[in-house]
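Troubleshooting: if your tokenizer reports a length mismatch, compare your output against this known-good record of 277 residues.
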Amino acid sequence: MRLSGTGLTLVKVLERNSVYTRHEIRYQSNGLTISGILNIPNGDGPYPVLVFNHGFIDPSVYTLGRGLKREQDYMARQGFAVLHTDYRGHAASDPRPNPERLYEGNLEYAIDSVNAILALQAAKLPQIDASRVGMLGHSLGGGVTLAILTAHPELVDAAVLYAPVHADVWQNFLRWRDNGPEGDATREAFGSKEESPEFWAQLSPQTFLEDVTAPVMLFHGDRDKDVPKPWSDDLATRLTDLGKAIEYVEYTGEGHEFGPQWGDFMRKAAEFYRENL
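Known-good structure output:
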């Protein structure tokens, strides 16, 4: 489909500190208004930009810029502009236009993330170099990031995957959606993977990993109770076998959101972005 990201505006200043300014933003994503935050380092720049894709948080409790705030702060302090998109249906964003309870592999969220990049490029903010784009995706947001790396590899120059969901969306459907309201409706509309292998293959970034061009840094903890670490083991193997630039960092004792080794995670990720942006 044709993607359109336009009209990025700085709505108001949420915070000023000695290092960066935190803005509330809005932009248009294929006609929908999407909210988010944009941290811009103080100074002339222009600074490379990191687009953050957050994990699952129930939209009923989600608030502006929620999910990766400590990572937003850290990377802005390292000299990167940080755009965190709220996705449709979250915070002040417009609701999903198609409310049918069908699982589509979170491609709608991927559309909003791609359009955040396009809107930022069109805005031509003088402090931001929107030709240098990194991406970070946590959990569900890792799946969003994988969808973008495979469908629009030209838009992202370096990607960090932080405890990402499976690159095969059927596995995500089985783990989180099959027993919920979407399960029966999705199976009725699309069939199972056994019944409709081509449909599920076309929906999955795993099918298109050959198209990844950006270097990838993958992080996962061995005590993650939300997303199984073997999923990242499998992704790392697949990318390595395809000859892709992949570095896999495995943390002993870490869960889905890193604790004791979070600082090491951030230092490694920041250095990775500096090398590639």
